[in-house]
Amino acid sequence: MRQSQLFTKTAKEPPKDEFSFNAQILIRAGFIDKLFAGVYTILPLGFKVLKKIENIIREEINNIGGQEIYMPALHPIANYKKTGRDKIDVLYYTKLKNGSELVLGQSHEEIIVPLMQKFILSYKDLPKMVYQFQTKFRNELRAKSGILRGREFSMKDLYSFHKNEEDLNEYYKMAQKAYFKIFKRCGLLDLTYLTYASGGTFSKFSHEYQTITEAGEDLIYICDKCEIAINKKIIKEQSACPFCQNKKLREAKAIEVGNIFKLGNRFSHPFGFQYTAEDGSKKDVVMGCYGIGLGRTMGAITEVHHDKNGIIWPEEVAPFVASLLKIKSKNAMPAGRQEKVKNIDKISDKIYTDLQDNGVEVLYDDRDVSVGEKFADADLIGCPYRIVVSAKTLMKNCVEVKRRGSDKEELININEIINKISNY
Amino acid sequence: MRQSQLFTKTAKEPPKDEFSFNAQILIRAGFIDKLFAGVYTILPLGFKVLKKIENIIREEINNIGGQEIYMPALHPIANYKKTGRDKIDVLYYTKLKNGSELVLGQSHEEIIVPLMQKFILSYKDLPKMVYQFQTKFRNELRAKSGILRGREFSMKDLYSFHKNEEDLNEYYKMAQKAYFKIFKRCGLLDLTYLTYASGGTFSKFSHEYQTITEAGEDLIYICDKCEIAINKKIIKEQSACPFCQNKKLREAKAIEVGNIFKLGNRFSHPFGFQYTAEDGSKKDVVMGCYGIGLGRTMGAITEVHHDKNGIIWPEEVAPFVASLLKIKSKNAMPAGRQEKVKNIDKISDKIYTDLQDNGVEVLYDDRDVSVGEKFADADLIGCPYRIVVSAKTLMKNCVEVKRRGSDKEELININEIINKISNY
């Protein structure tokens, strides 16, 4: 994309009413815009990142048998009365013209259970795994963590349906592996721990995926022997790892980037969602649920991957693979360079087109702004590679390539750029 | 996809509380599920269709310079007070915990104007075109037209921003062409007319894209000379075409599948959204807006493309290109056929894998159900091609291929299927 066409602009300062680092830097770089606390518009650069995160999740969830659907955001309150969640803290309430009371979906158990009840009748119909990407509405009293805790946010929610606990446990393990693959591809694996948290009625533990960062709202204790963590909410500070009895637990602040629950019959039972078993008896369907917030994942990536100049996107979730900077210095220069400057537009345009034709996504800074502004914006936006075309590099028939976050610049012959960038 | 894995099932009868043909057939075939009147869950088959419609629209809108974003559904009512739309008929109202009043987005002018106001300062920043796919919430008193008029539905809304009316007019023409491309690719072009409708304060006319079908809620008059139509709301029954004075207008019921408006400064003015012109003066930004409902487009396609047995999907929006039916007849058969039956699982699986490996999307009916049920479901679901593998076809080393909606069946050698299907 030509940066001259992009409607957003970067800002030197974050808005004064934004206190979280993730939202500050994403707003400054033009990835998101704040409508009000906890509610953000996703701008073109942010949209590209979220779509990449979404597609990574989609691939990995499809790989473990997920079938994608799209459920409504308007929910009849009657469904919530069945599960006793009609007065939970985070609901938004609204009404149809005919007076029917509705809530906005804060999760979708109350919708997917009566839906699946229409199709799952027998043990032959199990197991089934169904997911969606859909907006969740949560009426948080305070929303001070930027896109880490929104009052409206996109989430992937997967629900699994099983004959019994054994079958759920087997799938639950597959989901755990898929989640690690997702966080690996999002560049979060090294700092993300499977974390034991409070389990509810059916299971002793639920599991969170906690990414270590100072911005985290949660406190976890990491057992480096088991390579797992325990949420502070379920452990005393001085106690040992419940699995290996290791007493040297490491405390850290962390962001919950995903969570998975064994629901058992917590939601199937209130709806009378049963199947006919092999022996003809009726049994409650056993459920699991598996969530990942998209905006929260994007926010966690910025908290973890940045330096003082801006974001450093992991390659698979970067808005573009490379920033291509056309530098037309206005300083006095030797005659040879002046000759090169004449062709710089044509050569830069050709490099841009060639890269795109070869499947390399490029943000082409063709703007008529200062050299300093181009370099600063490339660092702030944070694409993995910066390619500079200037009279100086063209004197050697080269461009200058730098990995974002590294100090090393490399001159590469303009005929070899495609090959180099594609194989970095 | 293996149909044995698909969690939905077809139904012989539509639900009793569903009166519109589009929803009846989409529910029977397992594309959508009704949560309550005007609010539907999109099931896996429907999801595939909607994603294809979405991607067609995305491609064509990107081609006319659209930049994709994603705006929130929760809107501060304060923004609506500025434009005087805080009491319009279709709003849902809700509240934050701190008492702040919100409405659910029924359209996004009140959000995109203050957003663009942050980035568009000068004539140099214009024109800009920005769009999204986002849920719209409209509190309709009645919702009896299935997915043609939802109380919650996905829509593509594009907004364009210009220096003056001339520039808007130029872009408006490009958008008109893009819309016809979209409806062509969705299989609706032949029955869709650019229709003149009421224009509001800024412009004499707005334009609707009306698709002729008996299920339509609108009445239009078609001028076959100009190849346009006029909405009944702005014309007297007996009057002539306002462009060529042709008096032989053809009356038809139609569905509004898209609409485009010249908004002028209707929304920019209340927000004081101005730009600095070439001469240094401040001028109101001139706007256009352009909508297409995704579910409504899917519904219109089913109203237009079906027979008594089911839907007939146009190829570019079909959930799968082909249904592959494995037929294991249990009837008595000659010895040669019995031999073939032994290999039918293996051969069918191979055809399925080969088709997929060659980029042909296939719904593989590998279920253990009757032959009649397989044929009926294939017709009901309505993929463009039906490929039958049976002992009878395998005797000739062939499969039987039929175009949905045609009577002609063709025997094709199993080594030539890929080639044939890819080049149909």
UniProtKB/TrEMBL annotation, chains A, B:
GO terms for molecular function: ATP binding; proline-tRNA ligase activity. Transmembrane segments: none annotated. Its EC number is 6.1.1.15. Residues 38-314 form the Aminoacyl-transfer RNA synthetases class-II family profile domain. GO terms for biological process: prolyl-tRNA aminoacylation. It comes from the Bacteria. The keyword Protein biosynthesis applies. Pfam families: HGTP_anticodon (PF03129), tRNA-synt_2b (PF00587). It is an enzyme of class 6 (ligase). Keywords: Aminoacyl-tRNA synthetase, ATP-binding, Ligase, Nucleotide-binding, Protein biosynthesis. One of its GO terms (cellular component) is cytosol. Gene3D superfamilies: Anticodon-binding domain (3.40.50.800), Bira Bifunctional Protein, Domain 2 (3.30.930.10). It catalyses: tRNA(Pro) + L-proline + ATP = L-prolyl-tRNA(Pro) + AMP + diphosphate. This is Proline--tRNA ligase.
